């Protein structure tokens, strides 16, 4: 059994081509589209344009778009943790009051 090949390997051969192409697939008017638009503006503001590497893009994407199930799991774990002798909700309320 061989390794799967990227079908676009011959089309998108540079980081700029890979990242700029990926950014065009985000729907305009959504938070993802706004995120992609912001990245494109930053890349195009540099002369010559610099989109970074494909690996950097993947890391940035994963940080921006954490799957909801993972997010809910993290929130659940956070709320079930003890903060000293208090549960999270009590600790957070105390912290919020002090922070103000």
Quick structural overview:
This protein has two domains: 1-65, no CATH class; 68-100, no CATH class. Helix content is 59%, strand content 4%.
How would you characterize the overall build of this protein?
Strand 1 and strand 2 (86-87) form a beta hairpin. The protein has five helices and two strands; from the N terminus they run ααααββα. It is mainly alpha-helical and 100 residues long. 59% of the residues lie in helices and 4% in strands. Strands 1-2 form a two-stranded antiparallel sheet. It has helices at 15-23, 31-44, 54-64, 68-80, 88-99, and strands spanning 82-83, 86-87.
Largest sheet: 2 strands, antiparallel
In percent, how much strand structure appears in the residues?
under 5%
Summing up helix and strand content along with how strands pair, one would put the structural category as mainly alpha
Report the principal-axis shape. elongated
The N- and C-terminal alpha carbons lie at a distance of 60 Å
Low-confidence stretches: none
- Series of secondary-structure elements, N-terminal to C-terminal: HHHHEEH
Helix content: 55-70%
Q: Radius of gyration from the CA trace?
A: 20 Å
Mean pLDDT over the residues: 82
Domain count, please report it. Answer: 2
Count of runs of 4 or more consecutive helical residues: 5
Q: How many beta-strand elements?
A: 2
Query: Can you list the strand order of the major beta sheet?
Result: 1-2
């Amino acid at each position: 059994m061989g390794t799967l090949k990227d079908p676009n390997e011959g089309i998108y051969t540079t980081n700029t081509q890979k990242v700029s192409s990926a950014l065009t697939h985000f729907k305009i008017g959504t938070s993802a589209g706004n995120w992609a638009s912001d990245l494109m503006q930053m890349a195009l503001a540099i002369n010559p344009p610099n989109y970074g590497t494909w690996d950097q893009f993947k890391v940035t994407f994963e940080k921006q778009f954490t799957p909801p199930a993972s997010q809910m799991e993290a929130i659940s774990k956070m709320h079930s943790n003890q903060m000293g002798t208090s549960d999270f909700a009590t600790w957070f309320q105390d912290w919020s009051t002090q922070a103000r």
